[in-house]
Design goal:
The chain is α+β, with helices and mostly antiparallel strands. Helix content is 34%, strand content 22%. The protein is built from 20 helices and 21 strands. The N and C termini lie far apart (150 Å).
């Protein structure tokens, strides 16, 4: 059948097989154009608009600033002997996810770290998302090398410094210690931290996702080591003083103790030791007895007792309240001031000032103190340094307690005359005696070689200081309370103290502190030493029996060490029995 011409003209043209309609081609081209436009816009956004942000994000993930630690300065004694040193060590760190991805390395690594495999596995799992975790800090380089030789993925080392204390417990409370990051925590390590601490260097590197350094950038700043600090301490004398103190604390079953030796001419502290001690090199045991970290000489307060009597008499002489030749009537050995009853060991009757100190008469001290009055007595103790820290350089040194004289009344004045109702530190008491030893000037104690930068200040005349020192020589002669403090070959001037400790609003009958403070040679002192034994519990507790012998042994060694010439004749008394006073 054939179509007419009109029918053939109205019939749609057939599309050859394999060819899409024209409108579909237009849509496809349009979509392609839009895709290229979108890609161009996105490229513009990434390459131009967000370029700085993306570069910063990339650097944050891959560019690292590694710190190169600066070595901490050394602490040395006056002759250069090391008391604290820093040695290079290595710390092992890990990217936990990288190591967990290769579990075969975990067991041998745990063995080198002295851990159980399961323990290490658990530590890593807990920190899987972290990029840095310390496995072990401050290892000797040889041990760190054995660990790195495993070539475990994600395990690296970092250079650090570890603090060592060659003198160990002998200087522990004085020098103090640092934490594991090398920051001073106690003692002079803390006090001089700003000087000792070095400045870390910086190294800019590129790291991969496992923490490995793949490139060093040009930016680098070298580390700077800290400054060394030279102390006034003589390590030879420090060793001897520490040993004698430790032996005395042990022999008397005491709670603790302090010993100090100072150079009168410069104010430099040559030895300063306390008990109980600790070993700063054993970090595993440091937390067991934190109380032993305390430097009792600067931080512990106590009532000075009879050791203030020479200071009180010096102030009375300086103020012309009494004369050096004056007699004091102590009667039958007791006196009542208001509600307070003051007693001596026995009645001494009329005694001079020298015998007052030699017998340590509380009644005699009260009579002189009442003549001075509260205001002048308070001013005198202030002038000797009570109520102020000594500026020795030890961090956190306390100032003691000296209440206002307006609160004293007659009872407070009386008790202050023989050393109760106030508190001092061993450093304060030693510095007060430095006035007597240094011909009347207050010389600041110093723990730094070269002495303090503070100027001397005159407190009493040289004549009065010499008079009191001469009186104090009687304390270590027959009939005095401190005969066991005598040093063969030298004239010693000193004072004993036996102090009952405060307890429950009163004073304990069985808790005491035993003290002795002395100097030699008495005529022109070169050495001053103080000994405090806290709560001796072996039966005897008098300062003349417990503290004085320690002074004698240490002062004798110090005199030889410093080559102090002995007197032409041996004026010391080393064989007499202790005197009859409890002070």
């Amino acid at each position: 059948m054939s179509l007419s011409k009109s029918q053939a003209r109205n019939k749609p043209a057939e599309v050859p097989a394999g060819l899409a309609p024209a409108w579909r081609q237009h849509v496809l081209v349009g979509l392609l154009v839009l895709g290229f436009v979108a890609l161009g816009l996105r490229a513009f956004e990434l390459q131009v608009r967000d370029r700085d942000f993306l570069l910063a994000e990339g650097e944050r993930r891959h560019v690292r600033t590694l710190l190169e630690p600066g070595g901490r300065g050394a602490v040395r004694d006056r002759h250069g002997a090391p008391l604290a040193l820093s040695a290079p060590v290595e710390s092992i760190w890990v990217v936990p996810s990288a190591l967990l991805a290769e579990p075969a390395y975990i067991a041998p690594l745990a063995n080198l770290l002295e851990m159980q495999r399961g323990e290490l596995q658990a530590e890593l799992e807990k920190r899987r998302g972290r990029q840095f975790y310390y496995l072990k800090r401050q290892l000797p380089p040889s041990e760190a090398r054995r660990i790195l030789d495993l070539d475990a993925p994600g395990v690296f080392s970092q250079r650090e410094y570890r603090r060592y204390y060659p003198a160990g417990e002998v200087t522990a409370q004085l020098v103090g210690l640092c934490n594991i990051d090398g920051v001073g925590q106690e003692g002079l390590e803390r006090g001089f931290d700003s000087l000792l601490a070095g400045s870390p260097g910086q190294r800019l590197v590129i790291q991969d996702r496992l923490g490995r350094v793949v490139d060093d950038l040009d930016e680098f700043r070298a580390s700077r080591p800290g400054q060394d600090v030279d102390l006034s301490i003589d390590l030879r004398l420090q060793h001897y003083a520490y040993g004698e103190l430790k032996a005395a604390v042990s022999a008397h079953n005491a709670k603790g103790g302090v010993i100090l030796v100072a150079d009168v001419q410069t104010g430099e502290i040559l030895a300063l030791a306390t008990q109980p001690g600790f070993n700063p090199n054993n970090r595993n045991s440091l937390g067991e007895n934190r109380a032993a970290w305390r430097n009792r000489a600067a931080l512990d307060q106590f009532e000075p007792g009879s050791t203030v009597k020479p200071l009180m008499l010096a102030a009375a002489l300086q103020n012309n309240i009494i004369d050096a030749s004056e007699q004091v009537d102590t009667g039958n050995g007791w006196i009542k001031i208001g509600r307070l009853q003051v007693r001596d060991y026995r009645g001494y009757g009329q005694i001079g000032l020298t015998e007052l100190l030699a017998k340590s008469s509380n009644v005699g001290a009260v009579k002189v103190g009442m003549l001075m009055g509260a205001d002048r007595l308070f001013d005198a103790y202030r002038a000797f340094g009570f109520g102020y820290s000594t500026a020795s350089g030890f961090p956190g040194e306390v100032a003691g307690q000296l209440t206002s004289p307006y609160e004293w009344g007659d009872v407070g004045t009386a008790t202050a005359s023989y050393g109760y109702g106030m508190s001092v530190t061993a450093l304060q008491l030693a510095q007060a005696y430095m006035v007597l030893a240094a011909d009347g000037v207050r010389r600041t104690l110093s723990l730094v070689k070269g002495g303090s930068q503070f100027e001397d200040e005159r407190i009493i005349s040289a004549e009065v200081a010499a008079q009191v020192r001469e009186m104090l020589t009687a304390v270590v002669q027959p009939g005095g309370t401190g005969t066991r403090a005598a040093v063969p070959g030298y004239r010693v001037a000193g004072k004993t103290g036996t102090v009952r400790k405060a307890e429950g609003g009163g004073y304990a009958e069985d808790r005491h502190q035993s003290l002795f403070v002395g100097m030699l040679p008495a005529d022109q002192p070169r050495l001053l030493s103080l000994v405090v034994i806290d709560e001796p519990r072996s039966g005897v507790y008098y300062g003349g029996l417990v503290a004085a012998p320690v002074f004698s042994r240490v002062a004798s060694s110090a005199a030889r060490l410093l080559q102090i010439a002995p007197a032409e004749g041996d004026h010391s008394i080393a064989r007499v029995a202790v005197g009859d006073s409890h002070s």
